[in-house]
Write a structure and sequence with these properties.
The structure holds two protein chains of two kinds. By secondary structure, chain A is an all-alpha fold. Chain A has one domain. Chain A is globular. Chain B is mainly α. The chains are: A mainly alpha, B mainly alpha. Chains A and B meet through helix 2 and helix 9 of A and helix 2 and helix 8 of B.
Chain lengths: 260, 264
């Protein structure tokens, strides 16, 4: 475990140095992301100020759904950014090097290069969520604990999707469309999935579990779901994780090292 | 002219050569649309209104953004900057082509392909979701919205050209484009109508050129802008186009002085 932490730290340090070498771009990207978050929040305040409730949730509650989605989404992007570069490693044969190293190639494919530029956004989101909970929502301790646990569960589920994507990259050399499709589908979780009509709502709750990833944690915080839902969420994420690893291992058998 | 038509056709053919990528890109657009559509469907009550928008007006606006964006916001000009950066601009400079016309033709091919798919998408959405849609029957409003869209296409072309020309001076071309696209997405009105905001914010938006890319053409289609204000809008758009055109030409000329075909 210690070895993996050291390797991860070294890889993140290297990719951070590259990202920060272009300072102007780094600042512009960060400003862009803050502007986007700010504009969405202003938009939500304005429409929720006019509508008062949305599918039974108040202004503050809806904003917490939105912030939770952004927190999970940005955290996943920050830690699993290497997946976006994985196609290149397959196409130019760099992946051969991953296979010869004494660390798991899957670990290298997933965590090989975190994006430090997302760090400020993760911190901002965390602070906004904390402030909203402390000053407006006043959740129970049990709610906070379940919310935290389900955020970890959401991350694991997102990781499972990313493992499918890197497996797909080995089989088809396709990453970009698959990962962007994943991101667009998860973006349906910006708002509680209750706003969508059937059959879309069931699809994004159980088939592509956006609802479980993004909506469940906040609903637990509000005390709206029971323990069966908690078991369902954890069970589904464990199932996705196992299936994704099986898919990855199967995909590895098809790697031909054709480009090296 | 025949040459430019062939260039546009080649972009069209290219889109269909990489069909899966292009179809997935359009599917992504539909998913993004669904998020906005259902948000407004839930926010605006069936028999009520929000900020002066009834549900069918709002959903027409949201559906309209899919079509108008295919006209105005899709662009092939993301490649202008990389072309300058890797020295491929030299190829364009030695050809007997007008550089601006060359990219206009490429842009037209790109828009035609996007438009083709967005019409199919809208037809499918109307068929499947059966949204309450507002059909504009006044021919003057229809004509005015078509003129708005044409002017908006020119505006977006010039904005993207200027962004691409940053590559003459800086290798960091994606960050300014990223920031500009975010601003256009919000202040252009492709996610929501801008007049839901407080009056002071709407006045600020009116000074900027972005609202003319999506919001203004759609408001004209919905018949929510008096004819006199539509005319003022046209004049403002033409003034913006003039300013952008002059800026674009100046930046292009100055850029060519510093262009060193680096990378060739």
């Amino acid at each position: 475990m210690k070895k993996y932490i050291i390797v991860w730290w070294k890889l993140v340090s290297a990719t951070s140095a590259i990202a920060l070498a272009a300072r102007f771009s780094a600042i512009m990207f960060t400003v862009g992301k803050i502007v986007r978050l700010g504009m969405f929040l202003v938009f939500l305040y304005v429409i929720m100020g006019k509508a008062k409730t949305l599918v039974g949730f108040s202004q503050d509650q809806i904003i917490l759904f939105f912030l939770t989605f952004n927190f999970v989404d940005t955290l996943v992007q920050m830690l699993l950014r290497e997946v976006y570069r994985f196609r290149g490693y397959i196409v130019n044969g760099t992946f051969d090097g991953f296979l010869t190293k004494p660390i798991s190639p899957l670990f290298r494919a997933l965590f090989g290069g975190g994006d430090i530029l997302d760090m400020p956004m993760v911190l901002i989101m965390f602070l906004l969520i904390a402030a909203l909970c402390i000053f407006k929502i006043h959740p129970s301790l049990e709610g906070v604990v379940l919310y935290g646990l389900l955020l970890v569960n959401s991350f694991l589920m997102a990781m499972a999707f990313h493992i499918f994507v890197v497996g797909l990259a080995i089989r088809t050399t396709e990453v970009d469309s698959a990962i962007m499709m994943y991101r667009d589908i998860t973006s349906l979780g910006r708002m509680p999935v209750d706003i969508y009509k059937e059959p879309l709502r069931s699809i994004i709750t159980f088939v592509i579990p956006v609802g479980i990833m993004m909506t469940f944690p906040v609903k637990f915080l509000y005390g709206l779901l029971n323990w069966q839902s908690f078991v369902l969420a954890c069970g589904l994420s464990a199932l996705f994780l196992v299936l994704s690893v099986v898919f990855w291992r199967n995909a590895l058998r098809y790697y031909t090292s054709a480009s090296s | 002219m025949q040459t430019y038509i062939l260039i546009a056709k080649s972009v069209w053919d290219q889109k269909f050569a990489y069909r899966l990528n292009f179809i997935l890109w359009r599917v992504r657009n539909v998913i993004q649309f669904l998020a906005t559509y259902y948000l407004w469907f839930s926010v605006v009550p069936v028999n009520g209104s929000i900020a002066g928008y009834s549900q069918h007006m709002m959903l027409t606006y949201v559906l309209g953004t899919l079509l108008v964006s295919a006209f105005t916001l899709t662009t092939a000009l993301g490649d202008v900057g990389p072309e300058i950066q890797n020295g491929d601009l030299s190829n364009s400079l030695i050809r007997p082509l007008n550089y601006f016309m060359y990219w206009m033709a490429k842009d037209a091919g790109d828009k035609a392909a996007n438009l083709f798919f967005s019409v199919i998408e809208i037809a499918l959405i109307i068929l499947l979701l059966r949204p309450p849609f507002y059909w504009q029957t006044n021919p003057w409003y229809l004509l005015a919205s078509v003129i708005c869209i044409l002017l908006a296409i020119v505006m977006n072309f010039l904005i993207n050209m200027i962004l691409g020309f940053i590559a003459f001076w800086s290798p960091e071309i994606w960050a300014p484009r990223f920031l500009t696209m975010i601003i256009i997405q919000f202040l252009g009105g492709s996610l929501f109508p801008l007049d839901i905001f407080p009056k002071i914010m709407v006045q600020i938006f009116q000074v900027l050129p972005f609202q003319y890319l999506v919001y203004f053409p759609l408001k004209v289609y919905l018949g929510q802008i008096p004819l006199m204000q539509i005319l003022i809008g046209f004049v403002t758009m033409i003034v913006w186009i003039g300013i952008m055109w002059i800026s674009c030409q100046m930046i292009w000329r100055k850029g060519l002085y510093v262009y060193s075909a680096e990378g060739r």
